[in-house]
Amino acid sequence: MQTGQLISLALYFILMLGIGFYAWRTTTDDVSGYMLGGRKLSPAVASLSAGASDMSGWMLLGLPGAMYVSGLSASWIAIGLFIGAFLNWVIVAPRLRVHTEIADDAITIPDYFEKRFEDKTRLLRIISSIVIVIFFTLYTSSGVVAGGKLFESAFGADYALGLWITAGVVVVYTLFGGFLAVSMTDFVQGCIMFVALVLVPVVALTDVGGMEGLGTTLNAIDPNLTDLFGGVTLVGIISAMAWGLGYFGQPHIIVRFMAIRSVQDVPRARNIGMTWMGVTIVGALATGLIGLAYATQNGLAVDDPETIFIILSQILFHPLIAGFLLAAILAAIMSTISSQLLVSSSSLTEDFYGIFLRKEASQKELVLIGRLSVVAVSLVAIALAYNPNSNVLGLVSNAWAGFGAAFGPIILLSLTWNRMTRNGALFGMIAGAATVLFWIYTPVLANGATLSSLIYEIVPGFIVCGLVAILVSLFGRQPADTITQTFERARAARTA
Fold first, then answer.
1. Count of CB atoms within 10 A of residue 62's CB?
2. Cα(433)–Cα(400) distance, rounded to whole angstroms?
3. pLDDT tens digit string along 298-352?
4. What sections of the protein cross the membrane (predicted)?
5. N or C end: fewer C-beta atoms under 10 angstroms in the chain?
6. Over 80: is that where the pLDDT of 5 sits?
7. Measured CA distances, 298 to 207, 214, 315, 325 (Å)
8. Does the structure show a pLDDT above 90 at 38?
9. Does residue 438 sit within a domain?
10. Which residues contact 368 (CB under 8 A, 6 or more apart)?
11. 284, 63 in Cβ contact below 8 A?
């Protein structure tokens, strides 16, 4: 590792830990303060925190790599995600901010489900909590793996050392600073990602001869590379764009909507967030295409297309700036890990410990348990990550679909339809998750292929969950008057 890169990374880590220390001194010793920052996030922090925790290393590694291999047709997934994120801000954000506060100050998604439907059996809370803890532990593990591989491939460091450095810094600022630290570090990390995804493609474009040189080189390789519809079918486009459906059910993203300062701040936060997302996605797409042209013009061998951002950073920039650009990848990875750690910790604390083990626990005790839960989840994630080829990590690629299908329709219906019932939510959630699992793992096609080879599993999962939730609600008992009244109070508060 060059000295300049080492200095940049050291400064980045010091900044993250400094923010965590500030948040620790600022955060209150109650659960709402630790888990939701006291619902005081500014529009800018809430929006960039949601964006940074969403994108992870996919933004700087996966998307440029897909563009490098497939050309412009790989951008359909980005288009779907942009539309999904916009609808999430328009439909879910203002409603969830109000509903969770009126529903007896619900501070986790399982807590919201239970209070929204007055579920005395607590089945909704238990099932949704189990789903969150299991899948987010695996999700966190995948992020730690990405950090280990980054240190190994970009810096020549030991893979295991990379695991511990990545996880260690995240755990420290998350453990002490809680939601406020996670959100503030996400904001800074989002700014770093923004600068990196503008700087790298602009400098690289200049080096390949501008737009004219880029077009000439890509057309010489394959004219389909610049065709949005080149080599893709209608089903392929639907599958790619269906990634946008997942936004409605991602707990680590929508929890930002619960923490924003007021519902009046949502439009401003949406505008900031969507501008950030639009610029960074275009930058990531451009990095892949321009990187292909650069590699072709210079006879550069690229063994792994997903490393094209790293390669351009190290070749085109001074080591000090290259270190900053590589820190952008680490920022993307760490912002997602911290968010997932905190959501898992919140669920273990609020939805298990505080409900079933210590109902009389004080606020300080619950915050302590939350911090211990951060450590526990991170240790399990690190243990799983020690084998980067472990089969259990294959589950992570489907977690987005699992959350989207199990939670997405339930979140949408619970916020927009006062006729929805507790049984509708429960059976819809189970049906959506079961459909995704069936689609992924059941070899019903020729040669043992699964249905996910035909269309992305979130599409049938989302549809089945929504239909079951609606039908069970319509054919069941009417919601209690108190549930309807709470729903109408939330609607009135949002439109006031």
1. 19
2. 11
3. 988 888 888 888 889 888 988 888 888 888 887 878 878 888 888 888 888 877 8
4. 6-24, 74-92, 123-141, 161-180, 187-208, 228-248, 269-295, 307-333, 366-386, 392-413, 425-442, 454-475
5. C
6. no
7. 10, 13, 11, 22
8. no
9. no
10. none
11. yes
Share of the chain above pLDDT 90, in %: 23
In a domain, 453, yes or no: no
φ, ψ of residue 158 in degrees (nearest 5): -65, 140
Question: How far apart, in whole angstroms, are the C-alpha atoms of residue 139 and residue 132?
Answer: 10
pLDDT of residue 291: 92
φ, ψ of residue 302 to 5 degrees: the values are -120, 100
Measured CA distances, 71 to 188, 232, 244, 281, 293 (Å): 31, 11, 20, 14, 11
Q: Are 185 and 338 in contact (CB under 8 A)?
A: yes
CA 482 to chain centre: 34
| 232 within a domain of the structure (yes/no) | yes
Phi-psi region of 233 (alpha: psi -120 to 50; beta: other; left: phi over 0): beta
Q: Is residue 119 part of a domain?
A: yes
At residue 377's C-alpha, the angle toward residues 461 and 26, to 5°, is 105
Among 28-42, 90-104, 218-232, the range scoring the smallest mean pLDDT is 28-42
Dist CA 432 CA 246 (whole Å): 12
Q: Are 187 and 44 in contact (CB under 8 A)?
A: yes
pLDDT of residue 391: 47
Residue by residue, DSSP assigns 25-94 as HHS-SSHHHHHHGGG-B-HHHHHHHHHHHHHGGGTTTHHHHHHHHHGGGGGHHHHHHHHHHHHIIIIIHH
Model pLDDT for residues 471-494, shown as the tens digit of each residue: 999 998 888 888 888 888 888 887
Does 285 score more than 90 pLDDT? yes
CATH number of the domain that residue 149 is part of: 1.20.1730.10
pTM: 0.88
Name the 3-class secondary structure at 285.
helix
**Contacting residues for 491 by C-beta, under 8 A, at least 6 apart:** none
